[in-house]
């Protein structure tokens, strides 16, 4: 029996259409809109007036940090959430938009840099690794801030340069490996650059493009790919049992650069 002639174009019949591009939604700092957020309850069980975009951000964080990384649920929401800007990345389906990624941008001021070797639980220093140069905390004392490789701390004035802090970057397992983390990082940084005065205080220092991330050691490569450089002077510390390091990136906000002779050059990006 003769076989029918080969039809090479028939291979195309089995190809799948390219998925639609992800959608990124922006949530301005919710502030008092989160006054009734209950961090002991699931994101889906919160009060009806919690902004939906923030609720979706917490759904992603619940899946990644709580379910996957075993962070206690009541530690995941913190005091920075109301004052932070949030982004949520959605996957489009025929029936709905599914939240699959999130990131937040925390304005200054910030608490002291973490103690090198410190052990933190729910944002509080509870112990210090014996090899650390810093003594363990006593009572309710709060460690003083310190200078690092890329951030100079001045205790005698308001001379410390303000920085914005990215955090809570999370992509659900089913959507990893698609460079979606970069989509969120770029969305947050691009917004910050376009709105560089948004977080400035009337009588305080202005943001001049310095961005910090407390990166899990396992995620350092992701942040390097996004242009961040590890700050060796910060050392490392543990948050909820996971080792973290500090990484900085300077973005161009079209301002005159100040002289920073004390630190190695930190390249501008973005």
UniProtKB/TrEMBL annotation:
Select a single GO molecular function from the record's annotations and give it.
acyltransferase activity, transferring groups other than amino-acyl groups
Q: Where is this region: Disordered?
A: 1-27
PROSITE patterns for the chain: GNAT
The record's CDD domains line, in alphabetical order, gives: NAT_SF
Q: Where is the N-acetyltransferase domain?
A: 73-252
Q: Which InterPro entries match?
A: Acyl_CoA_acyltransferase (IPR016181), GNAT_dom (IPR000182)
Task: Give start-end positions of Pro residues composition bias.
Answer: 17-27
Q: What is the protein's given name?
A: N-acetyltransferase domain-containing protein
